[in-house]
Structures are given as structure tokens and as C-alpha cells.
Amino acid sequence: MFPFMESLTDSFLGHAWRALGGDPAFLQNLSVEGSGVLRSAFAVSDLGTAVFSAAALAVAELIGTDEPTPAVSVNRALCSAWLKGSARPLGWRPTQPMDPLSGFYPTSDGRWLRMHMNYPHHAEPTLAIIAAEATRESIAAAVAASPADVIEQSILDGGGALAASRTMAEWAAHPQGRAVSAEPLVDSTATGTAPDDGWRPSPSRPLSGIRVLDVTRVVAGPAATRLLAGFGAEVLRIDPPGFEEPGGRGASAGDLTLGKRCARLDLKTDHGRATFLDLLAGADVLVHGLRPGAMDALGLGAEVRMAARPGLVEVTLDAYGFTGPWSGRRGFDSLIQTASGMALHSRDVLGLDKPVFTPVPILDFATGYLMAAAALRGLTTRITEGHGTRWRLALARTAAALIAAGQAEPEELIPEPFPGPVDPRIFVTPAGLAQRLIPPFVVGGAGLFWERPSELLGSSAPVWSGLSRTERAALVR
Fold first, then answer.
1. Which one of 15, 130, 156, 236 is separated from 371 by 20 to 30 angstroms, measured CA to CA?
2. Residue 413 gets which letter from DSSP?
């Protein structure tokens, strides 16, 4: 825990940068300008500005391993706007990724259940267990007849995804709340020696030549790897056969596959595992959001991964944390906000009649950009110290930091939609053409842009490009 202070550097950013293992003196390279926040019961704009700043500082630090360290400037209003959504569709409207059956349902003991019905493999067992039809009315009637904890446990045991509402005080006293609060915001471990392949960052495209293997879903992990792609990394996303994100096939790729190639592999087969290990051998960074023990169950445990790629930078995401009785429980931003008391607190502060979330999935985005910063710091460490690293972050641990900070000081609200400035470049997405707000930060002459359009999941083959990391890096030096 850390005290909330008026100074951004002394609160979120300082805490995050130290958790990433960064030198506090390096914060002097940062300047913050602009103003404006999103309306929230929590300091979401402070946290958003801090994690964008941490990622930008990590880029500058990486460049500084081989070139003069560039200065970093961050625009606070643009940070808030990017949290809300940086894409500006041209002639089309984004689809709604949330299934209409997802939502809050009151229980017999005066509490609420947040149902997560976005994926069929979560929705189908949920409906079967509570004997409800696929309508909100039928679900509401079934839920209203039982206490929250009883339904929560039965659905979780059956493979569904949901969370019962708790107050922040109840979560603080809960075994999982206590466990995750005791974890570091960012946990890191040094791994084996990394052979020096001669790769060094370019000031203009600092991650050109770096290969990132992306095994993530939904928002947090994909946001992390999208940022890495924006600085020039080759990102290859791996999904299982038949998997699609919520919102239809066009939305399954959407904005979060920008700059990436998307392939499919069945890691439950010998061929899929062998292909994955071949890809891993050529990777620099692995980002995955599989629950604890899932890689081991597939025969891809930590020792196997490190043997396939000595010096690997590995960044791992979990929902409820890596310790405690819920460490293996499936979870999403909305479920963490419900379980941790954030949703009830937002309801009370905003004077509403049922739980409500922050105006953006802040736990997803904040954790995602911290994951990107961790990957960048891992690359810096590999150059300067000659070894790989393993990093672990959790949505619930980010929630603990946000709760500990308290409510932000009143400040002017940013306009929505945010008017710009907008990058003149036009991006191709599966749903149509789009522009984007200019980046919320500047790192010297390093450009944040994407060389590839968004693509549908499964559109590419599970192979790296023909150029090695040193050959690709040489193209921009």
C-alpha cells in the first residue's frame, strides 16, 4: 500500500516505477502537461496518466542503453481520452462487445451478482446451473430466489464466470483481498543468462527487430502488446481454433489487434505444442494471460519455456492474484470491480441505485500498460545485466492500488468524445477505416504508430517473418 499524495509522481507513478524496478531518479526525465479527468469515484485519470508515463519512461530507458536518453512528455487530457478510446471510426459505429445477458442481478439476501456471459463456454453452464432461459427476465427470477454466495459458488464450480458484490471493507477482510494486497504491484524474477545477439534499440523505432509472442485475450494483455507493436515490435497473437472475442467476428480482432498478426494453434496437441516452442525459440518476449498452472498442464512449464528461449522476457497476467484461495479463479475487470467493492462504492458516491463501474475498464488498461512497461524494462535488463526476467501482474492488485489511493481531487472533466488533435494517418480495421487521437506521450523522436492494419483472429500463419531481429533492426538504424 502507499499513501495518496497530491503529486502524481509521489503517488501512482512513483509507486509503479519503483514496482517495475526503475530508478526513481529517472522520473526527472518526465514532464506532464494538460488537464482534465474522467468522471469517476476513483482516481482513474491519475492512474491512467501514471501507467502511460511508466510505459513511456521504459521506452526512453531502453533507447538510453545505446543512445542518449530522450526526454518524455505526457499529456494528461490525452491520457484520459485514450482510456476512453483513441480510435475515431470513419463512417461506421463500433459494435457492443458486452453480451446483453451480462449485467447485475439482485439476490435474495440484498446483494448483487455480476454475470459475465460474453463467452458461450461461460454462458452455457451458467444458464444450465440456475435453470434459466437465455433472457434477462429468466436469469433475474432464478437469481432472486437464492443468496449471492450460494449461486456464486455453484456457477464457478460449474465453469461459469461471475462475482458477488462486496463492500471495500468486506473485500479488505476477505482472505483473497488480504492475499492480493500483500503482493507487489509488479512482481519480477531474474531468470537464466541471455546470449547477446547484438540487438540494440533504434531511437526512431525502438522495438524494431523484437518479436513478441502474444497469448492474451480481452483487453489488458492485448493492450500491452498493441503498445509494443506501436513501437515497432513484431507481435504474433496465438488463439485456439474457433475462438472469437465477444461482439461478432469483425469485432473479434477490432482495435486491439492493430499492428499484429493473428494465428491459431491448438496447444493441446503435440503439433501445436511443438510449433509453439519453435515460435518461442525465436521470440524475445512472451506475454500470456493463462491462469496459474495452465501452461504446466499443457506441458509448457517455466523450465520448458526458458529452455526453449534462454533470456526470455516473460510477462504474465492473472485476475485475482498469484496467492490466496482465489488465485486460480477466472476473472475480468468487471468481476474484480464487483468483488473488490469498487462497484458498490461507485454506486454510493455517484448516488445510483445499483452497482456501477468506472467509466473505462481501468483495471484492464492500467494493468495492460504496466505489462508493456514490464516487457520494456525486461529488454533493458537483458541488455544491461545479461539475463532474462519473469514479470507477474494481476487485475486485483491494480484494483488494490486504486482503492488505496482514494478519490481524486475535483478537476475539470474532459469533453466526450474528445475532439483531438487526431493523427492524420488512416488505419484499416476489420469494421472499417479509422483515425486515432495523437499519442498521449512523446518519447524523443520515437514514433508510436502501427505498420500493419488490424486483422481478424486466425488470419495469419503461425510463423515469424523471414528477417531475424538484427536484420529487421538494421532497416531502421
1. 156
2. B
Handedness of CA 28, 30, 36, 39 (dihedral sign): negative
DSSP output for 302-323: HHHHHHHSTT-EEEEEESS-SS
CB 86 within 8 A of CB 77: no
What residue has cell string 459458488? 153
Q: Which residue, among 428, 332, 406, has the nearest Cα to 168 in the 3D structure? A: 406
pLDDT over 90 (residue 431): no
CB 214 within 8 A of CB 237: yes
Instruction: Categorize the per-residue pLDDT at 4 as very low, low, confident or very high, splitting at 50, 70 and 90.
Output: very low
Count of other CB atoms within 10 angstroms of residue 285: 28
pLDDT at 217: 92
User: Domain limits at 396?
Assistant: 9-95+180-322+357-474
Contact 115, 102 (CB under 8 A): yes
At residue 262, the 3 state secondary structure works out as strand
Q: Which residues pair with 433 in a beta bridge?
A: 428
- According to DSSP H, which parts of 85-219 are helical? 120-130, 136-143, 148-157, 168-173, 175-182
Within-domain flag for 51: yes
Residue 157 in domain: no
407 DSSP assignment: P
Q: Residue 454's domain is classified under what CATH number? A: 3.40.50.10540
CB 280 within 8 A of CB 254: no
Name the domain count of the chain.
Answer: 1
- Rounded to whole angstroms, the Cα distance separating 343 from 331 reads 15
Q: CB-based contacts of 140: which residues, under 8 Å, 6+ apart?
A: 105, 106
Question: What pLDDT is attached to residue 253?
Answer: 47
Mean pLDDT of 146-164: 95
Q: Which three cell numbers stand for residue 420?
A: 483531438
Q: In terms of residues, how long is the chain?
A: 477
* Residue 31 host element (H or E): strand 30-33
Q: Which three cell numbers stand for residue 387?
A: 539475463
Angle at 362 (CA atoms; ends 333, 168), nearest 5 degrees = 65
Smallest CA-to-CA distance from 402 within 324, 352, 328, 346 is with 346
192 in any annotated domain? yes
Residue 272 forms part of a structural domain: yes
Distance CA(190)–CA(311), nearest Å, equals 9
Above pLDDT 90, what percent of the chain? 83
* Dihedral (CA of 335, 340, 342, 348) sign: positive
Nearest to 127 by CA among 163, 150, 101, 96: 101
Q: CB–CB of 435/422 below 8 Å? A: yes
Residues in contact with 351: Cβ distance below 8 Å, sequence separation at least 6, in sequence order: none
> For residue 231, which of 63, 15, 468, 447 has the smallest C-alpha distance?
447
Name the least confident of 1-10, 170-179, 183-192, 378-387.
1-10
